[in-house]
Write a structure and sequence with these properties.
The structure is a homodimer.
Chain A (H helix, E strand, L loop, with lengths): L2 H14 L12 H8 L3 H13 L3 E4 L3 E4 L3 H8 L15 E2 L3 H9 L21 H14 L4 H4 L6 H13 L9 E4 L1 H13 L5 E5 L4 H9 L3 E5 L1 E2 L3 E2 L1 H10 L4 E4 L13 H13 L4 E4 L24 E6 L11 E4 L4 H11 L5 H13 L2 H26 L5 E2 L7 E5 L6 H10 L5 E2 L12 E5 L6 H17 L1
Parallel strand pairs in A: 5-6, 5-9, 9-10, 10-11
Antiparallel strand pairs in A: 1-2, 3-6, 4-12, 7-8, 11-12, 13-14, 14-16, 15-16
């Protein structure tokens, strides 16, 4: 729980205990700062959360007051419980989820839709105007021969900049080991092709990112979904048992802020995971595209930093944290680096040169850290407001994850509520959600949806969450 | 034979016949224009060719004179014969050429190499500075939501501009049927995946572009190389016989200026090819990345223009004609359009947005036609000079193609000359060539090399051709 949520919880307790009564003024932001030893931003976030939950009200030029209707609001707003560890079937299975995924993606492409089912952060969160300037100047400055010379592995300045960032995160990477790809998606697909053959079994999280399922399906492989904790990721004991029982060709996990659960595997578990797989020579593909979007004080140490044997294939990209649409990602493929590079040359040859040059310059002098700090804090605040809105509007018994980064909430609806039906009814009201079955090789999670909080929490978004809550209630 | 070559031939005959004697002045450019009814450019190209061949000499501020040593020069310069129709084995075969291709590509990446083995035109031939300006302005002008909205099929303005160009070439394409890809390579690979399965047989040209061989190898398919005419492309009679004898899952041909032969399939043959395959429901993948680089008066009519059944998958790109390094290509995949689009979304998701926007603007107002006219005429002149240099320096009995477009010559060395040995010795002298075996599933064409004339014909290039000729002689 973050500091502002703790503060909000404390004020809630005071209201419940009658220390603060309906209509009474609560401490001003300045008073609360002094009393609690926190920053004004934290107090403001806490008060915003309490207002969203209907416990307090703002009176312009006067202050914050306990709401007259706080009791009913508090009943609704008791923060929802988190989901439990997933319990997928223990057998590996072929995958046939692609058609459903496409159907759902195509149905929500319209601009007028409130994109709670989107996989992207709202573009307004990115320094696109600044990047466009870098795009112009970097492209003009490129020596013509670079248009041919920057074949795989890609722009050398960009690879050096990435290697420096990874070094700071505990990963010692030679720039020559970094292959620039068309986004994280290409990196992941190439890595999977490099380490496994058709018919092989790939261990994944449960629920898992649908693109992982699609890649496994496209390449004729099988998926083994493992029990996954909503906060801590894959259950390592279950993984160990599976490894002892059957041949697993590779694991494909998201150790930081997984899609859709948002789980963050603890550092000790990462170390254990890497060692366990290396001992068995099983490659670990890490989809780490959310690695920069942490809410904690420090960046989680990548699994790759524990990789002494070259068995970790680390994939990431700028699409989620800086430059959507630029399609610049990368792979550090360890032992399989040359093979992944050759697969790249055979399938798409090279990555577009100008966007690589622009990003290399931006990393050097664009203010990346400043941008990231702002983005993380916006995402964290938006998460709090969306959880509060879900608490206020969704049926009792709804469970919600509490990710420590990224921009997805995984919502378990109570009872037999059907997420595909919710998706269909919401689409009619121009709201998208990502229904649970697209995250499962067996189309499980029929009562779950993934919601995206990577957009400003406008009244329109709040109204959309309220509408979803009403629709969910009507499905019970 | 082009007009300027005819004129050069005529003057050669006059010198041989003694009409023009050593040391005598030949007609000035103006006189020749008037006498022959041709443009000054044609006369200049003819005189340049004669000079390259050592038959005439320029005296500054005086004119052109028959060379005193014209006899020995003429003996060397008799234009080499063309290669014969290829005769590959009649059985389909698995492919294992990738390692050799990579070895050769990696060995010649250095900047100091004279890149006669390159697959690219020299970057100086492209309007890169202008494109860079479009890149800056187009990226700045993009609405942020486009960074997410321009998912496959890609930038709508670019697809409309391409559809208009194809309409003018006789292909009626709906912009929604055009999928923007990461270069032609991705388009081709996606199309092949969409129409064929592992183990299937794919009919190809002989010799064939090595990337086609690599794609077939990577996907576990088999190749059937067909007899191919150096001017007219695949032998349709041989194709018909093969179709009657065995199941062919798809054809992958380059109908315009194939790589490496440079063949141009005549319009009537294209029509027949498309009809023959459509009647058997066999998909035709056309790699048409050289379609804009024709030397004739009009653009060859694409095979796609004869496609009434949707069985032609037309792939092309800007990498060869306008914007190398931008990695923007496309596919018009007919019946398989949706499937190709989905394969794209599953493997690389989307194509970088800013380069697409820049190219859309450039096509509208950048002067594309003007650029193309200049490029075509430069390539044609460079071809003439390289053929003359080969004639002057390579061993007697060497055969050379006479492509009507593109920028490759296919050179057959006489006797048992070993192209891989030539490649190795040339590399020591910082000259690259593309040896024949990388263009064959059976590593045939051991005595052939592909030479690239897509670069200004500088003294350095001429010296490199002379060195190659010497090395080739030493191998006999």
């Amino acid at each position: 729980m973050t500091r502002y949520e703790e503060l909000a919880g404390e004020i809630t307790r005071q209201i419940r205990a009658g220390v603060l009564r309906p209509g009474e003024r609560i401490p001003s932001v300045r008073q609360a700062c002094a009393a609690q030893g926190v920053s004004p931003g934290t107090v403001q976030q806490a008060y915003q959360l309490l207002e969203d939950r209907g416990l307090i009200q703002t009176r312009p030029r006067s202050g914050y007051y306990v709401s007259a209707t706080w009791k009913s609001a508090a009943a609704a707003a008791s923060t929802p419980a988190e989901p439990e560890v997933s319990r997928p079937p223990r057998a590996s299975t072929s995958v046939a989820v692609s058609d459903l995924v496409f159907e759902i993606l195509e149905s929500v492409k319209s601009e007028s839709v409130v994109p709670l089912g989107s996989a992207f952060i709202h573009p307004s969160a990115f320094p696109l105007a600044k990047l466009a300037r870098f795009m112009g100047t970097a492209t003009r400055a490129l020596a013509p021969r670079r248009m041919v010379a920057d074949l795989p592995p890609g722009n050398p300045e960009l690879r050096r900049a990435l290697a420096r960032r990874y070094l700071a995160a505990g990963v010692s990477a030679d720039p020559d080991d970094i292959l620039i790809t068309h986004g994280g998606m290409e990196a992941l697909n190439l890595c999977l092709q490099a380490v496994a053959r058709p018919g092989d079994t790939i261990a994944i999280e449960a629920p898992a990112f649908y693109a992982a399922l699609q890649a496994i399906e496209r390449l004729g492989m099988k998926a083994l979904a493992l029990p996954t904790h909503p906060r801590e990721g894959v259950d390592l004991q279950a993984l160990k048992e599976a490894l002892n029982k059957q041949r697993i060709a590779a694991c494909w996990f998201m150790t930081s802020f997984s899609n859709p659960l948002g789980s963050l595997m603890p550092e000790e578990s990462r170390r254990e995971l890497v060692a366990m797989l290396a001992a068995r020579e099983v490659p670990l593909i890490v989809d780490d595209v959310y690695e920069e979007l942490y809410f904690g004080k420090t960046r989680p140490r990548p699994a790759k930093s524990f990789d002494t044997e070259g068995t970790v294939l680390h994939c990431s990209s700028f699409s989620k944290c800086l430059a959507p649409g630029y399609r610049v990602g990368w792979a550090l493929a360890g032992r399989w680096a040359q093979q992944v590079r050759r697969l790249k040359m055979m399938s798409t040859l090279a990555t577009a040169i100008p966007p690589q040059a622009a990003l290399a310059d931006y990393l050097k002098q664009g203010g990346y850290e400043h941008h990231l700090r702002g983005l993380r804090s916006a995402l964290q605040a938006q998460q709090g407001r969306m959880i509060a809105a879900i608490a206020a509007h969704f049926p009792a018994g709804t469970r919600v994850t509490r990710p420590q980064g990224g921009y997805f909430l995984w919502v378990e609806l109570p009872g037999k509520a059907d997420a595909l039906a919710l998706h269909a009814r919401a689409a009619q009201k121009n709201i998208s959600v990502a229904p649970g079955p697209i995250f499962s090789p067996q189309r499980r999670y029929a009562h779950c949806v993934r919601l995206n909080y990577g957009q400003p929490f406008t009244p329109q978004v709040e109204a959309a969450v309220a509408t979803l809550g009403r629709l969910a209630k009507s499905l019970l």
